[in-house]
Amino acid sequence: MNSKEVLETIHMIQDQHLDIRTITMGISLLDCADPDIEKSCDKVYAKITRLARDLVKTGEDIEKEYGIPIINKRISVTPISVLVAASGGDPVLYAKTLDRAAKTVGVNFIGGYSALVQKGFAAGDRALIESIPRALKETEHVCSSVNVGSTKAGINMDAVALMGDIVRQCAELTADQDCFGAAKLVVFCNAVDDNPFMAGAFHGVGEGDVVLNVGVSGPGVVRAAVASAPDDFDLTQIAEIIKKTAFKITRMGQLVGTVASERLGVPFGIVDLSLAPTPAIGDSVAHILEEIGLESCGAYGTTAALALLNDAVKKGGVMASSRVGGLSGAFIPVSEDAGMISAVREGALGLEKLEAMTAVCSVGLDMIVIPGDTPSEVIAALIADEAAIGMVNSKTTAVRVIPAIGKKEGEELEFGGLFGTGPVMKVNSFSPFKFIKRGGQIPAPLQSLKN
Question: How far is Cα 137 from Cα 100, in angstroms, rounded to an integer?
């Protein structure tokens, strides 16, 4: 690197919110299975605290040495429903064990209180899912996810209906905490095994025993790069600017991942290229779309602009690292993105437009606050719609909605920190009750027959 590149990177970090959003250690708990749940919990705690004991310190050391902010240090584990299948008993004991381990090693969050039920409920799955509201209320650091569909399997509508109830219960049990329990729960279609981002991270059963994954950020850097482009640049030239910027961001993630894995003695997994926004002004995916040429995020053209952004980020990132994985694209979490919050407040952005945007972005309906009296079947139908987009398009989609108990459209929930502020958004009031109560399986689409 020459001096110009060094100064440019310093400017990105200091003025444009460039950071490593997370280093996440994935840990397999398959060897912790035991028919005695207390023994299994002891094995889980011992393994996590042994492998991750230096994770936080290593991240802090790299921050000091390289001047690169690493916002979160996290852990993901094997879906806990697998352990419940072997041990039986109350799954919340595992949640409390994970929480205790997270506190011991000092990480921000630990993900993997999860179940994969896209084709049906196996042993342990239903018990774990039904325990999620209690688990998230009684723990501080634990995050949960459930995969209800995939392109190969179709959509498990019995699981979708159940998750509508579970999301509501999570909000109701944590109503005194601004319904924050629901913010720690993600419902997926086509969930990936190596996602480093919370709340949906888990360590897939096909992964190695332990691995280190990195999630980069950088919406502010991309926005600044696009803002500096002349007004007469066409969209091809804008895409080139985004690609080059994504390359620089990803190289930083590759550096941090390589150094951290060497110091921890843990294999380096992937760099997730996702642009993860924050509530800070200037660190917004919505503002990138507005710099491309929209008056406000949510205007017609938003989906097309997001498709351009997502594609350019991926193209730039894969040139910078041979270890690209996870979700990799652009997150659009409403409460965590200053531009999205503003667009909702102004009436420019609604749930229908957000759903259209999820067809081309990284994940789905993320960190969206809905009225507290929204019925569970409406939440389930939101999940079903997102799962259908993911299933048909062979991409990951997800739903993380927060019913704001006691609040109505136009009011707000204040989460604070990276979780931001959530304006309560309008929800279609027409009922999908009969559709959701039919249950069964939406068959896999023709796209699944690729063999």
Answer: 14
